[in-house]
């Protein structure tokens, strides 16, 4: 007898869960307990759906590590009872949140599919229903009794991405997300086609949940003419424990003596600095140009082709679990959850 998959929907907040009161034109929260009555197409899916909503819904802009931990708590509590998860959240910080969850769950063997929408679920032209229906279909899809997807993903506008490779690229287009340095894991059209060559394989290890996230990290984005006092004030934030440095092109930065000295002073205090590119796609390649050679020589760590969203999540995770400064470079430059190409 074939077991029907059980899928848990976790609603944290965001545009997707809003419906319009046509008498007042005000938006109000959708009741996901009645999801199959409101979206009858879900009855055509071969899965059972259970829902859990945050008691206080979170706008995307207010998402933070304490809510990441809350999401992970729900996953951990229900992990043995369900076959997959669909998580709804605001799109503005979805790449940050889904990247963080990917690092917090080690040895994941079930699908966790993040999705949302650009328009509320109650709007006439909403993208919410297709995103939601297909996210459920992906989470429930199995082969020989085991899930096809065994990782944290993000589904949006006909494409399934590895969550920690994504970035939001539009506030208006339905195609709001891209995975600049890694192909989609699946594409939805007349058929739902999986890109088998890029799927992470099932492992036989038990789930390990990590809930300690380092708060004291910062993103320092370079721009032409950035002043010494700006960089100095950021790098001297009290209790600072990590820096994501957004550089130009393939990892290039100013060669001013004051700039290099400030970075070196920071590294000498055992605060790791990770070099990521501001470019939408491509990779950091320190030493290729003279303007990145100094960074390499003082111990700045290469972020390779990681996204900024994934870099900040990964650094907070590594520091949170207590990885020593001396070991950060080796682990950051190694792919832990498929977040790096090499």
Most strands sheet: 8 strands, mixed
Order of helices and strands: EEEHEHEHEEHEEEEEEEEEEHEHEHEHH
Uncertain runs: none
CATH topology of the largest domain: Rossmann fold
What helical percentage do the residues reach?
A: 25-40%
3D structure, described in words:
The protein has 342 residues and is α/β, with parallel strands linked by helices. The protein folds into two domains: 6-209, Rossmann fold, CATH 3.40.50; 217-332, 3-Layer(aba) Sandwich (Rossmann fold), CATH 3.40.50.40. It has nine helices and 20 strands. The strands form six sheets. Strands 4-1-5-7-10-11-14-15 form an eight-stranded mixed β-sheet, sandwiched between helices. The longest helix has 14 residues, at 65-78. The radius of gyration is 21 Å and the shape is globular. The model has no long low-confidence stretch (mean pLDDT 94).
Write the layout of secondary structure elements.
Layout: E1 6-11, E2 18-21, E3 26-29, H1 35-38, E4 48-53, H2 65-78, E5 84-88, H3 94-104, E6 105-106, E7 112-115, H4 128-140, E8 142-143, E9 146-147, E10 152-156, E11 159-162, E12 167-168, E13 177-178, E14 186-188, E15 192-194, E16 208-209, E17 217-221, H5 228-235, E18 242-247, H6 257-268, E19 273-277, H7 290-298, E20 301-302, H8 308-320, H9 325-332
Parallel strand pairs: 1-4, 1-5, 5-7, 7-10, 17-18, 18-19, 19-20
Antiparallel strand pairs: 2-3, 6-16, 8-9, 10-11, 11-14, 12-13, 14-15
Short description:
By secondary structure, this protein is α/β, with parallel strands linked by helices. It is 27% helix and 22% strand.
């Amino acid at each position: 007898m074939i077991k029907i998959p059980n899928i848990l929907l976790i609603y944290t907040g965001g545009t997707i869960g809003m419906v319009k009161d046509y008498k007042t034109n005000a938006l109000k929260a959708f009741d996901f307990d009645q999801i199959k009555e409101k979206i009858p197409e879900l009855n055509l899916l071969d899965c059972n759906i259970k829902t859990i909503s945050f008691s206080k819904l979170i706008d995307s802009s207010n998402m933070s590590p304490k809510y990441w931990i809350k999401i992970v708590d729900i996953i951990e509590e229900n992990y043995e009872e369900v076959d997959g998860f669909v998580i709804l959240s605001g799109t503005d910080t979805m790449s940050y949140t889904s990247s963080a969850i990917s690092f917090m769950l080690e040895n994941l063997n079930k699908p966790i599919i993040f999705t949302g929408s650009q328009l509320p679920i109650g709007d006439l032209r909403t993208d919410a229903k297709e995103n939601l229906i297909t996210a459920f279909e992906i989470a429930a899809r199995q082969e020989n009794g085991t899930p096809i997807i065994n990782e944290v993903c993000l589904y949006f506008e006909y494409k399934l991405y590895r969550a920690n490779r994504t970035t939001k690229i539009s506030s208006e287009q339905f195609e709001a997300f891209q995975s600049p340095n890694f192909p989609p894991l699946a594409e939805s059209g007349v058929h739902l086609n999986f890109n088998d060559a890029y799927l992470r394989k099932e492992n036989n290890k038990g789930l390990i949940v990590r809930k300690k996230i380092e708060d004291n990290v910062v993103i320092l984005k370079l721009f032409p003419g950035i002043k010494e006092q700006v960089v100095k004030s950021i790098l001297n934030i009290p209790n600072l424990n990590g820096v994501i440095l957004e550089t130009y092109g393939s990892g290039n930065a100013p060669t001013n003596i004051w700039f290099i000295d400030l970075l070196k002073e920071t590294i000498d205090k055992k605060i790791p600095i990770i070099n990521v590119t501001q470019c939408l796609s491509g990779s950091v390649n320190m030493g290729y140009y003279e303007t990145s050679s100094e960074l390499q020589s003082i111990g700045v760590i290469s972020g390779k082709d990681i996204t900024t969203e994934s870099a900040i999540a990964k650094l907070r995770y590594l520091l949170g679990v207590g990885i020593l400064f001396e070991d950060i470079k080796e682990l950051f430059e190694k792919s832990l959850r498929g977040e790096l190409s090499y």
